[in-house]
Every structure is written in C-alpha cells, then in structure tokens.
Amino acid sequence: MHSIAIASVQPKSNLPAAKVPKSRPFSWSLIASALLLASVAGQAQISGNHYPMGAEGIKNASLPPKGVFTKNYNLFYHSDTLKDGAGNTAPVNFDVFAYVNATRVFYFPDVEFLGGKVGADFTVPIVHTGLTVGGARFSETGLGDILIEPLLIGWHYPQLDLALGYGVWAPTGEWSPAQPASPGKGYWSHMIPMGATLYLDKERTWAFSTAHRFEFHTRRSDGITPGINWNLEWGLSKAIQPTLELGVVGYGTKQLTHDSAGPRARDMAFGVGPEVDWLWTKYMLHFAFRYYREFAVSDRPAGGTGLFVLTKIW
What we know:
- This protein is mainly beta.
- The protein is built from 1 helix and 14 strands.
- The two termini are 21 Å apart.
C-alpha cells in the first residue's frame, strides 16, 4: 500500500505563479510546492510517507496466527483543497484523485520467536493518479512501490494482541520530477510497525486497537532525502454478531524531521470515520468497508479516503 507525496520543490517549472493576498498568512513553501509541482508521486494520499493512512482499520494490530492469507485493497483518495502550514486553504486551483489496487500476501508458518508467531508478507500495488495544479493537468497509471515485510511477530493473549515487525519499500514504481503523477516515489524506505489490540470484555466483543509505523527514507535520485514520518492508526469496534463488526476508525500522520532540501514544511493530517466488517464463513471471505474524512491538516491536501478490503483465509 502506498501514498502520494508532495515533498520538495524542483528548481524549474512552466506553471504560472499564484497571486497570494498579503492579508492572508499562507506558507510560501506550500504554494511553491504546489505550483512548482514539488515531487508529487501518486500513491494514495499526498505526503512524504510510503504507507497509505487508513489502510488498516479495526483490530489493526492483530496479526494472523498461522497459515496463508491474502488481502486485496481498493483505496480511493480525493482532495480539492490544499492547506498551508497554518492550516489555511491555499488560493490555488488544486484537485487530486488517486486509486490504488494492492494485493498483499501473508504467510505465517507454525514458528515461534520470543513467544510470538513469526510471519512475513509482501504487497504489490497498481496506482492511478489524476492531478490538477494551477492550469496544468497530469495523469498516470502504473506499478507502484512494492512493500516487503520479511519479519512480522504477533503475540496472542486472551485479552490482548501485540505486533512488531520490519518492512522495506522498494522503488519499483516509475518516478520522474517531470511527471508529478508518477506512480512511484523514487526512494527506498525502511518501516518499523508496532501495535496492540486490547479486548475490553471477556467475550472479546469490544476491542480497541492502535498501530504505529515509523518510516526512514533514503536519498532520492535528485539528491533529496525526505524527513522521517510517524503514522498512527486506531480503531474501536463492537461485534454485533460473530460475523459482523461495526467500528469507528482514525489515523494520523506527521513528518517528524525536515527534508534535506527544499521547503521547511512538515506535513500533518488526521482522519476519522466509520467501518463495517463482515465475514462470509462459507467461503472464508472477510469484507471491510471504511471511510475517513481528514481534519487538522497542514502543509498538504485535505480530503477523504475510502477503502474496500477483501481478505481470503486459505
């Protein structure tokens, strides 16, 4: 799973300059990023991180105990509003729509380490991005950056699940500073995921989960190293029936350090929304539907994220 990035300003652009009213304290670095098409790489949401916020919802820290599992993600993101560093709307014609179809495969053999079940997974995304900035329009579809997680460890207790792992994002997607809707980002990223799911009652019908992911990026071909990203996902759920769960889910993302060059912006966003999960026991198919609306956004677009996720238990 992936995200779209507005990261660093390129030195040249054919786009016209925007007129910013002096009475409004807009971030010049944000306007420059938008109008100079600052490295927009199309993979789910607009940010410097690879991980697409909201990809996992309720019980996001509960890993499979054993076996082979496949997930197919359908992620939609749209925004027509660009926010500056103070959270104000930038006076620029802006619109972005992204669709990601990603296939993820888990394998958990019957192996334990430090009392937890050991597994691995990989994710292959296909990305489409349509982007309008000022009077320029761009569109691109292709293979995105692949995620490989060679180590996942899940601990399972009567009232608690814990998870820890390591992953790497490979720059398999095409990236070019001349194509702001590129499906790839142009750099490697190391990711450390960790999280917990707490069951609030003995019957495990109520659950609260939280997952954190830290991303450490390498240098891009243009010499810029994006800043470190922190990603948060949480969910509160109630099992109405053994096969039906309802919940409220949310996410947050924050760039913790500045990029090595370009604007001194550090983007931030939060999202919240509903989720419905249903298990078709006859075919062991799990369906998840969720939608997030973003708020408290700065130095990036503010929009909405919708997901449909199909999981097959083999």
